[in-house]
Amino acid sequence: MLLEGRKQPRHSERFLLQISAVLDPLRTSMASVENLSPRGARVATEQFWEPGSHVEIESRVRELTARARVVYCQPGSVPNTFAVGLNFLITNGSDARSAVSALVCRYKSRLTTALIFIVGLVLAFFWLLNRWVA
Question: Which CATH number fits domain 11-133: 2.40.50.140, 3.30.1330.60, 1.10.10.10, 2.40.10.220?
């Protein structure tokens, strides 16, 4: 999905991560990722994050650690939540774009494999049905 004005597509992802302020590591919050691209992410959290501030993010589920800049922090669709736009600066000690691109490609490839498997099952079902009816 390429939103207007975006240089790269954003992929709808749902997983949890922890956000910590770089200048105050004790200030942390859990966040839910709404979408992800090689350059950044949009997350939902219950804490306000100052635009322009730098944060560390970590997700054990997706093996992702990164430093990011808060681009915006707007009231969320659910009361007492905020939608936060993050621009990745450093990911897993390397270039953010390549690390997150690899993450996005890995999950797209799993989805493709699952779809191929399902199509194979459907074809096998119809083949067996055809033999049973004939």
Answer: 2.40.10.220
DSSP string, 43-54: EEESS---TT-E
Q: What is the CA radius of gyration of the chain?
A: 19
pLDDT of residue 59: 80
- Phi and psi angles of residue 35, each rounded to the nearest 5 degrees, phi first: -150, 160
Per the listing, tokens 């939103």 go with 3
Is pTM beyond 0.70 here?
A: no
- Lowest mean pLDDT of 6-15, 28-37, 105-114, name the range: 105-114
Residue with tokens 């997706």: 62
